[in-house]
Write a structure and sequence with these properties.
By secondary structure, the chain is an alpha/beta fold. The protein contains 12 helices and 20 strands. The protein has 3 domains: 156 residues, Adenylosuccinate Synthetase, Chain A, domain 1 (3-Layer(aba) Sandwich), CATH 3.40.440; 93 residues, Orthogonal Bundle (Adenylosuccinate Synthetase, subunit A, domain 2), CATH 1.10.300.10; 157 residues, Adenylosuccinate Synthetase, Chain A, domain 3, CATH 3.90.170. A 10-stranded mixed β-sheet has the order 9-7-5-2-10-1-11-15-19-20, with helices on both faces. Strands 14, 16, 17 and 18 form a 4-stranded mixed β-sheet that branches. It starts with a strand and ends in a 5-residue tail after the last strand.
Length: 427
């Protein structure tokens, strides 16, 4: 049975939550492999509407094992709050397992995130200030606290004393902030230990055991490829790898074990926070896309910057991920437009460029080269087959396939599960 990775193909917020929730119905395991509670998935199903930040979207299927992999950084308070909200709405969390190797977002990470962002002034990156970057920095610096450390309180105290001394020096001497109490921080960790110990385990082993049983494993991406720490619009990126390669490192799989990689694209482009976005529309059209798509951050509620589909970025994303198929979301948002534009190339100082530049300084100079297509100007939310779509909507989808260089397997025409068109089977 296949291992399928679902990857954000743009700047995040591509409506991956719905796609994962939809595919999870046929999966035995759903595993989150990167990011933290700075990434949100909105899921609408028979239980209602949910804003998921850490718990995999497969949690709504009672027989599905849900894993939070080692590549995720976990704020224990946020995880416990999310688990509580799910339980209160009759969604069981009994089949949730957190990797013992996953790093924790500690109170000092959150403080430092806010202080560092403030210190950048006009050069601020636009982080969610939830401590994600500092937690990943400590992971790489080999001074992080991991979920497995919660299971050894004596060892945890020794590690925490060393790290907290260093962090308090930063807080007080560099930023002039108040120090954190060792005793209070340790007691807080002990409380997390009591409440989370039964959920902490070896997620890598569980994933491999599922594969040995020939079960379907769905890998849940967070954020998007254009925010990747290596391939995104650096430094306006996240602190992990949300691309397909990150799925292997973030769960402990071999690249040869992934059978299919589904890239999730919106039918247009959106972005939260700072950094270049070549097709951004700062006019009534951009405002209309935002309002029709309700483009406000799941985690922060910040308004997203909106614009036409960027096929240059799309080709780049498809190439570095190796997409075997695409899920195209929010096609219904474009129902009202008489004409729809697609960015097929950039111009830089008058020269045509069809590749996605690595430098944000270069990207800031890029101007979009647009191709115009006729809009369909009719609601498509009730359509359930590709042939049932208006001819102009089908033409738009086919053109995106050509420009991305990858077949579109699934089209979302609304927020609900049933508002989906399977062009080709994925699972």
């Amino acid at each position: 049975m296949p291992v399928v990775a679902v990857i954000g193909a743009q700047f995040g917020d591509e409506a991956k939550g719905k796609i994962i929730d939809l595919l999870a119905e046929k999966a035995n395991v759903v595993a989150r492999f990167s990011g933290g509670n700075n990434a949100g998935h909105t899921v609408i199903n028979q239980f209602g509407e949910f804003k998921m930040t850490l718990v995999p979207c497969g949690i709504f299927h009672p027989d599905t094992l849900c894993l939070i992999g080692n590549g995720v950084v976990i704020n224990p308070a946020a995880l416990l709050d999310e688990m509580r909200l799910l339980t209160e709405r009759n969604v069981s969390v009994e089949k949730l397992v957190v990797s013992e190797r996953a790093h924790l977002v500690m109170p000092y990470h959150i403080l430092l995130d806010g202080l560092e962002e403030k210190a950048r002034g006009s050069a601020a990156i636009g982080t969610t200030q939830r401590g994600i970057g500092p937690a990943y920095a400590d992971k790489v610096a080999r001074s992080g606290i991991r979920a497995g450390d919660l299971l050894d309180k004596k060892g945890l105290k020794s590690k925490l004393e060393i790290v907290l001394n260093q962090k308090n020096d930063l807080l007080t001497k560099l930023y002039g902030a108040s120090p954190l109490s060792m005793e209070e921080t340790y007691q807080q960790c002990c409380e997390y230990s009591e409440r989370l110990a039964s959920f902490i385990g070896d997620t890598e082993a569980l994933a491999h055991e599922a594969l040995a049983r020939d079960e379907v494993v769905l890998l849940e991406g967070a954020q998007g490829t254009l925010l990747d720490i290596d391939f995104g619009t650096y430094p306006y990126v996240t602190s992990s790898s949300p691309a397909a390669g990150g799925a292997c490192i973030g769960l402990g799989l071999s690249p040869t074990q992934i059978d299919r990689i589904i890239g999730v694209f919106k039918a247009y482009t959106s972005r939260v926070g700072g950094g270049p976005m070549v097709t951004e529309l700062k006019d009534e059209t951009g405002d209309l896309i935002r309002e029709r798509g309700q483009e406000y951050g799941t985690v922060t509620r910040r308004p997203r910057r909106c614009g036409w589909f960027d096929a240059v970025a799309g080709r780049f994303s498809a190439r570095i991920n190796g997409f075997t198929g695409v899920a195209l979301t929010r096609l219904d948002v474009l129902d009202v437009f008489p004409t729809i534009k697609i960015c097929t190339a950039y111009t830089i100082d008058g020269m045509i460029c069809d590749r996605f530049p690595s430098s944000v300084d270069t990207l800031e100079k890029c101007e979009p080269v647009y191709e115009e297509m006729a809009g369909w100007q009719t609601p498509i939310g009730d359509i359930r087959t590709f042939d049932g779509l208006p001819s102009k909507a089908k033409a738009y989808v086919r053109r995106l396939e050509e420009l991305i260089g990858c077949p579109i397997d699934l089209i979302s025409v609304g927020a609900r599960r049933e508002q989906s068109i399977f062009v080709r089977p994925i699972l």
